[in-house]
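User: I'm curious what two different proteins look like when written out as structure tokens. Can you demonstrate?

Assistant: Sure. I'll show them one after the other, since each token string lines up with its own sequence. Here's the first protein:
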Amino acid sequence: MKKIAQFFKVSEEEFLKEGNLSAYNSVILPKRATSGSAGYDFFASETFTVQPNQTIKIATGVRVKIEEGWVLKIYPRSSLGFKYRLTLNNTVGIIDSDYYFAYNEGHIFIKMTNCGDKELTVEKGKAFAQGIFVEYGITVDDDCDVIRTGGIGSTDKK
């Protein structure tokens, strides 16, 4: 397996813009559950509950440094999607390699909606989402040289 990325915590200062110190101190960096797992589990740094038809935005406290030519795709954990119809609000989270250098330190946020009819509670320290690294290509005539500065939704603001 080619090693192409590394997870880090965002700074305490950056995290406290969206979360609390107790949650920051409880951030667990994503990891695979088994050697055959494609996905890196993201863990809750504090207990949260999502009611049916409710949306929640989670500050993970995580950033990722990725080699150019790779992307991290974020999905709900399969079991939560299956049991609760938990979905990401952007359907699939896309973490580009240059997001690491954004003004918010590349802080990964996960915004989810419980589309089911049962309340979902995720306990502190439990996995709720997963990220999978995927290689991508570009066109032969690509000449993009724009450098990212912003965070989510910033690449269309020039």
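Here's a second, unrelated protein for contrast:
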Amino acid sequence: MKKKITVLGAGMVGRAIAADLSTHFEVTSTDLSAQNLEAIQASHGVKTRKVDFSSPKQIAQAVKGADLVIGAVPGFLGFKMLQTVIECGKNIVDISFFPEDAFALDKLARKHKVTAVVDCGVAPGMDNIILGYHYQRMKVERFLCLVGGLPVERNMPWQYKAPFSPVDVIEEYTRPARLVEGGKIVTKPALSEPEFLHFDKIGTLEAFNTDGLRTLLKFDIPDMAERTLRYPGHIDLMKTLREAGFFSDEVIDVKGAKIRPVDLAGKILFPQWKYEEGEEDFTVMRVIVEGTERDRKMRYTYNLYDRYNQATKTSSMARTTGYTATAAANLLLNGTYTTKGIIAPEALGTSEKCYHFMFEYLKARGVNYDVAVE
């Protein structure tokens, strides 16, 4: 009998997750959007269920018969969703980029004997797994992750499209970025320290500081940073909107209506940042791990360049993020990884078996990481 998986969230990434898992498991895709559910049902014939993710009761009902849950909801709903799933005693792999500390739920997860792998996308996610692997095998002195997902065709003024909730993207432009410099955690403004970098097959992109290290801040490494990549010009535009107050979460009065500017901005930007059916995108990531291994200075550089898949009509960001989550889901379902509690992706990387499984799983789906060793 096939194991049952409930996928919470049927957006662009959630649909890719459901489609991938449906080849070997019985999958139920859930969402509040009838349009999203119709899309996954029409393309892959998976079961669907309408669920309001702000309702713990509806989430509990949706996951009741599942052997595993995948969390792919907007960040502002992520923490409460994760808590509900844990209280239901269900193992979960989550990609929801929520601001709260997932480890606040570690005691609860252990109590319910739940394995909850969090932040398990492309970044955070695969970069954590890479660092976890090398941290076990060398004295790491520097870690850098450069990552971005962009439309192949550049259109003004945004030069950007969002494969997930625009509100989550806006968080990257407002949340202060935590980095490690000289062994100390430092905080810098989002969008700070812009830098032009060249990437093969793409050309020049612009990098800036974002708060993506998250659980990696627990590592004892002198220098660490995550920087997001965009087409040149996008940063200045986002800075202008932020500084003008459009991304503020402080409630204002507009003709008697109480609104948060960030909600209005998201509402306006969503249709403009939404990918059209069949619109091509790419994902680029470069992860650098430097340090001392067996008394030798070593540098490992992982490069990812992935594009929209024409055959399956799947976006690159959905593939690179979603298939990382489905690879981890298989590790839990086949019993390879069984540790209980809140599990950061780097914990998977410490296991050589899990590390190689993740890369082989992605490679089988056309997501390839090239590794250079110096």
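A detail about the second structure: The mean pLDDT is 95.
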